[in-house]
Specification:
heterodimer, A: 248 residues, alpha/beta, 9-stranded mixed beta sheet, 6 helices, 31% strand, B: alpha/beta, Rossmann fold, 2 domains, 5-stranded parallel beta sheet, 28% strand, binds flavin-adenine dinucleotide
Chain lengths: 248, 308
């Protein structure tokens, strides 16, 4: 089984996003960028499927600027076999990303695509399900545990009431949640080896996909601020305040 | 303009998230219909028909929809969309699951987790864990939208919409429900509770979490948690509040042993009153707390419970 893992390069999760003064977006100059944390989990899962002998090949793809290559290298260093870099300087919307990924999944003959449940920059949480729809494949979103057997995959999903298990006929799309696994760190020798792994250079045009944005950003602003309140000295004082506020 | 709202329900009760989504839909202007997809949905449909400003309630009753699996929901909704200009659903996991499928089938870009409606085509949504608010205008002919329900008031009840049953959908053949492990609790639902008491890594263990639960019960509150507390197995996954968990906006949010990472704040900073109990006076949670108590939670929490 061939597994495809799309990864996005995003503002590192430890960095607080700063809104640009002209309200055109978030300032991404000179800030630390990393692989979307959910995508690290997808990569780890794909590598484990390879180690278990379930996956024959694990291919990582990133759609983004030249630097997205570094993100692909990170995935290669923890065990992905090969990369595809679809270069674009635009921050494409999930619909366009899903269309490109559909073309790649078909070209590669992938049986399983593992995406993150959400990119922590735009917070859309849409690409995985969109891809499943475009391919007419079943989906297991917010995966907590996955188990493959023969031509099916069983996915335990993190849902609002607890956990839900679904069984999907392959090929399928899985999106990863936080508890699926704990991603490993790359070891230095593997980082060196990853430098020799192949990365195909592509552009959106190679896939004949219309990537024109459907949403235009009118403005990006700071959220309504919350000012720090006061420190209370004791539990008694706290209870007094809450009674005055009328919340208890 | 005709707008379809997808009801949040558990086949027995209609959830308040539906009323809030109706408010967001109504702000776009136009006729609002509600879709109730599930099994044995008569009572849920009757409840939905009472929501103010709703034109019609559409019901579809089929075993494949009991758990609203994504493939089955797509099969029901996509054909219906020839009659509608927009579809809105709450941004709970049930709807986040299939809405992008519907959008892709209609060849439109989903507008996720909106917190404001500027006009029929322009919406406000948080990005970067709520550290920025984006106003986006959609050029798509149909809008597919999920709604951050904490940002909208619930529509009232006094309406009397018409109702109509739809034909059975084709059941999906590639996806099958196997089972579920639902968290059992007599406490109010996290997303709808007036008071939420959340514990973090500072609580230390699942046994220790009993003091959080005990305080919550005294207050009639729901129990929440940080990611760290969930990852460590103190509480089930559906307790997680934050950017990638649940969004809550209760009257009172009490964060106990939680440092206040941006991902956590994203899910609770719209609460009316925030209380933080943390032994580290520099914990970032104090920057958003109305009332901060620097204390050891193992002393302060039982004391607080006793003082109520
Ligand atoms: C992709 C991604 C998504 C994420 N999504 C979420 C999310 O949705 N929700 C979420 O919460 N997090 C999320 N996180 C994790 C987030 O970054 C933080 O790691 C997490 O919120 C920390 O949890 P915590 O505050 O419980 O733990 P810590 O940061 O370890 O804080 C524990 C706090 O407890 C205090 N403490 C310890 N002992 C005591 C005591 N005896 N008495 C009083 N105080 C005490 C400490 O002073 C400390 O402030 C996400 C992270 C990533 C990368
Ligand atoms: N530019 C991109 N390149 C590769 N994968 C992406 C890209 N954007 C999104 N994805 C994938 O889609 C997931 C969900 O992203 P989103 O729908 O934008 O929240 C991510 O976790 C990635 O797996």
């Amino acid at each position: 089984m061939k597994v495809l893992v799309p990864v996005k390069r995003v503002l590192d999760y430890n960095v607080k996003a700063r809104v640009k003064a002209d309200q055109s977006g978030v300032d991404l100059s000179n800030v630390k960028m990393s692989m979307n944390p959910f995508d690290e989990i997808s990569v780890e899962e794909a590598v484990r499927l390879k180690e278990a002998g379930t996956a024959t090949e694990a291919v990582v793809v990133s759609i983004g600027p030249a630097k997205a290559q570094e993100t692909i290298r990170t995935a290669l260093a923890v065990g992905m076999d090969r990369g595809i870099h679809v270069q674009t300087d635009e921050d494409l919307e999930p619909l366009a990303i899903a269309k490109i990924l559909k073309a790649i999944a078909e070209e590669e003959g992938a049986q399983l695509v593992i995406t993150g449940k959400q990119a922590i920059d735009n917070d859309y949480g849409a690409t995985g399900s969109m891809l499943a729809a475009l391919l007419d494949w079943p989906q297991g979103t917010f995966a907590n545990t996955v188990e493959t057997s023969g031509d099916s995959i069983t996915v335990k999903r993190e849902v609002d009431g607890g956990l839900q298990t679904v069984k999907l006929t392959l090929p399928a799309v899985v999106t990863t949640d936080l508890r699926l696994n704990e991603p490993r760190y790359a070891r230095l020798p593997d980082i060196m080896k990853a430098k020799k792994k192949q990365i195909d250079a592509k552009t959106p045009a190679d896939y004949g996909v219309d990537t024109a944005p459907r949403l235009t950003t009118v403005k990006v602003t700071e959220p309504a601020g919350r000012s720090a309140g006061i420190k209370v000295e004791s539990v008694e004082a706290l209870v007094g305040k809450l009674k005055t506020e009328g919340v208890i | 303009m005709a707008i379809l709202v997808v009801a949040e329900h558990d086949n027995t009760d209609l959830k308040d998230a539906t009323h809030k989504t109706v408010t967001a839909a109504a702000a776009m202007g136009g006729d609002v219909d509600i879709l109730v997809a599930g099994t044995g949905v008569k009572d849920v449909m009757a409840a939905a028909a009472k929501i103010d400003g709703v034109r019609a309630v559409l019901g579809v009753d089929h075993v494949s929809l009991t758990r609203q699996l994504a493939e089955a929901m797509e099969a029901v909704i996509v054909p219906l969309m020839s009659e509608y200009d927009a579809i809105l659903a709450p941004d709970t996991t049930a709807h986040k699951n299939y809405m992008p499928r519907v959008a892709a089938k209609l060849d439109v870009m989903q507008i996720s987790s909106i917190t404001g409606v500027e006009s029929a085509d322009t919406f406000v949504r948080p990005i970067y864990a709520g550290n920025a608010m984006a106003t986006v205008k959609s050029s798509d002919s149909k809008k597919v939208i999920t709604v951050r329900t904490t940002a909208f008031n619930a529509a009232g009840e006094g309406g009397s919409a018409s109702d109509k049953m739809l034909a059975d959908p084709a059941s999906p053949s590639t996806s099958e429900f196997v089972g579920e492990e639902l968290t059992k609790s007599d406490r109010p639902e996290l997303a709808a509770a007036k008071i939420v008491v959340s514990g973090g890594r500072g609580v230390g263990s699942s046994e220790n979490f009993a003091i959080i639960e005990s305080l919550a019960d005294k207050l009639g509150a729901a129990v929440g948690a940080s990611r760290a507390a969930v990852d460590a197995g103190y509480v089930p996954n559906d307790y997680q509040v934050g950017q990638t968990g649940k969004s809550v906006a209760p009257e009172l949010y009490i964060a106990i042993g939680i440092s206040g990472a941006i991902q956590h704040l994203a899910g609770m900073k719209d609460s009316k009153i925030i209380v933080a109990i943390n032994k580290d006076e520099d914990a970032p949670i104090f920057q958003v707390a109305d009332y901060g108590l620097v204390a050891d939670l193992f002393i302060a929490v039982p004391e607080l419970e006793a003082a109520l």
